[in-house]
Amino acid sequence: MTTNMAERSRTAETAGGALGSDDVIAGNVSKCTVVPAGYCGQPRKGHLVFDACFESGNLGRVDHVTEFEYDLFIRPDTCNPRFRVWFNFTVENVKESQRVIFNVVNFSKTKSLYRDGMAPMVKSTSRPKWQRIPSKNVYYYRCPDHRKNYVMSFAFCFDREADTYQFAYCYPYTYTRLQHYLDSLQRRSMGYFCRELLALSVQKRRLDLLTITSPEDKTDLENSVMQKKIKIPKLSLNHVEEAGEVTDYGEEDVELRHSKRQDGRKQSEGTHKSIEAVVARLEKQNGMSLSNTSSPEEVFMETSEGMNNMDDAVVPRILYEELLRSYQQQQEEMRHIQQELERTRRQLVQQAKKLKEYGALVSEMKELRDLNRRLQDVLLLRLECLYDRIAQETVDETEIAQRLSKVNKYICEKIMDINKSCKNEERRESAKYNLQ
Q: What is the rounded CA–CA span in Å between residue 160 and residue 120?
């Protein structure tokens, strides 16, 4: 459907009267081709075709301003004409490298995230993933040409003629997508989720009633949570190195329990040797000595008070406390290391700033040296000119030598003054840098 938007605009203004041209919008545009005023014939490449007749689409009218600018009018919310925010439409029949400016001219909000860096979304046929337009190309302002309404303008360049481009206020979430999500939840048959049909809309769409409660049997919920395997390092007393230290810290998904080994020996044999190794290690580190009348098993049983049998004594209490102390020491060391790293980082930042300032000073000194060299060249040139002038004015060699000596002395004094001022300036800058 081809429509002359200028004639449509005049018709809308006549029909709307004092209500304004954007108050007579009825329905979304459907394959509306926008051509310049007075144009006749078939639309050409670059005469944009707008469409919003799809789910979650919203665009009521398009006005052609110039070849590169279009005014867009969005429809208000259903049963609430005061609120106009959402837009979602497609554009096709574009020309490669065509640059346009879209003005959404009838926003109802005075404050919008578009003023704080938010940008509209865009996707195309070849790039179906939503992307944001660069915020530098988006402007939100009050426009006097549109009854002082707030206008959102954004510039865009079409790069592929075969693509259909879609623009939206933000990420669309359609009714169909919601229904698919609710269907997936309903198929899982969760006891604490219930979906019921409350009513049907005018267009015969479902209006769902969702009920979410706590499960009747909480053990089911706990079991479903515990089914997630969380690997926690635990102490294993099954393997002993030659040095007599326990080194096997395996990760197990099931509870530790005393069971028969694969080679037929009982688990208690490995546990017996492990206990002896632990006690020997504790004696070596803490200076403990076992009495002649007490065995390693008795010492271990004394340290595990409150444990009735060997099935409960998975980790000796003494070893647990030792591991806890070592863990706390490691945490304290890590805290000190982090503090040192933070202090080093701050020092490096300060040194980087000083180096940056020093680099600026070096560049300034180079410029001063170049200026000094150019001044010396100018003074020498002036000396040569004075010499030629004096030679033309007088013939007396004695008078020439006297005048040249005076001129040379004057030039040397000036050069010395310039060098002295440069050195003083360099000293002041160096002192300032050292103080910083």
A: 19
Rounded distance between C-alpha atoms, residue 430 and residue 400, angstroms: 45
Nearest CA to 252 among 232, 279, 266, 278? 232
Other CB atoms within a 10 A radius of the CB of residue 436 amount to 10
Residue among 13, 9, 5, 79 at smallest CA distance from 37: 5
Residue type, 353: K
Q: Could you report the per-residue pLDDT of 183-234, keeping only the tens digit for each?
A: 999 999 888 889 999 999 888 899 999 999 876 666 665 666 555 544 444 4
**Residues 3-55 pLDDT 10s:** 444 444 444 333 333 334 445 677 899 999 999 888 888 889 999 999 999 99
* Bridge partner list, 80: 77
Whole-Å CA distances, 112 to 49, 81, 117, 119, 141? 28, 18, 10, 11, 10
SS3 102: strand
Q: Name the token pair of 362.
A: 């070096």
Q: How many residues does the chain have?
A: 436
d(CA 288, CA 329): 22
Instruction: Classify strands 88-92 and 49-51 as parallel, antiparallel or unpaired.
Output: antiparallel
333: tokens are 């060391």
Residue type, 294: S
pTM of the model: 0.47
Cα 298–Cα 299–Cα 304 angle in degrees, nearest 5: 95
Q: How far is 84 from 74, CA to CA, in rounded Å?
A: 7
138 and 112 Cβ atoms separated by less than 8 Å: no
